[in-house]
Amino acid sequence: MASTYDQKIRRGADQFLEDGEQVLATLVVRPRGWTQAGSGAAGPGSIASSIGARKQARNYEAADRSGFRITSPMALVVTDRRLLSLKIGSPIGLGIGGAVKELIDAAPLTDVDGIEVKRLAVGKTLTVTVRGTPFVLETGAGGDAKGVAAAVERAKAG
Fold first, then answer.
1. pTM of the predicted model as reported, rounded to 2 decimal places
2. Residues 6+ apart with CB under 8 A from 52
3. CA 98, 99, 103: angle at the middle one, nearest 5?
4. 76 burial class (0-12, 13-18, 19+ CB within 10 angstroms)?
5. How many other C-beta atoms lie within 10 A of the C-beta of residue 105?
6. pLDDT tens track for 3-34
7. Digit-coded pLDDT (tens) for 136-150
8. What is the CATH number of domain 4-157?
C-alpha cells in the first residue's frame, strides 16, 4: 500500500509528466547533512550542526555539477523515462504537508548512472549518480529508498 506522501506526490507530479509518462516510485528526501545541521540535540551553531551544513553544501554543489538541481525538502520521482526533483512543502508527518510545489529539474534515465542505498541510523542515504557525478540525499526510515533505486534499474533495463 502506498503511503499518503507517495499518493500526494504522484498526484502533484502529474502536471510535470510528458504524454504517456508514468510514475514508478517516489521518495521524500533532503540533501545529506540536513538532519545533522538541524539537529535539536546538537543545537544551532554547534560543531555537529556546522558539519551537517557543510555536508549539505557539498551535496548541493555536486548535484549542480551533475546538471541535476536539488532542493529541500523535495520529492525524488522515478518515471519510466526520467528522474525528477520536485520541490514540496515541509512534510510534517501523518501525511500532513508535503504538497508538490514545482518541478526543480528532470534528467532522462539514460543520464542516471544509478542510485545506491545505505542505512543511516534511523534513516537511509541515497547516493545518486547523474552524468558521472554522485551526490547524496537522505530520507527517513519509513521511505522506500530501495524501491526507488530498483525502479531506476527496472526502467533502464527495459
1. 0.86
2. 33, 34, 35, 36, 37, 38, 39
3. 110
4. buried
5. 19
6. 778 899 999 999 999 999 999 999 999 987 65
7. 999 988 889 999 999
8. 2.30.29.30
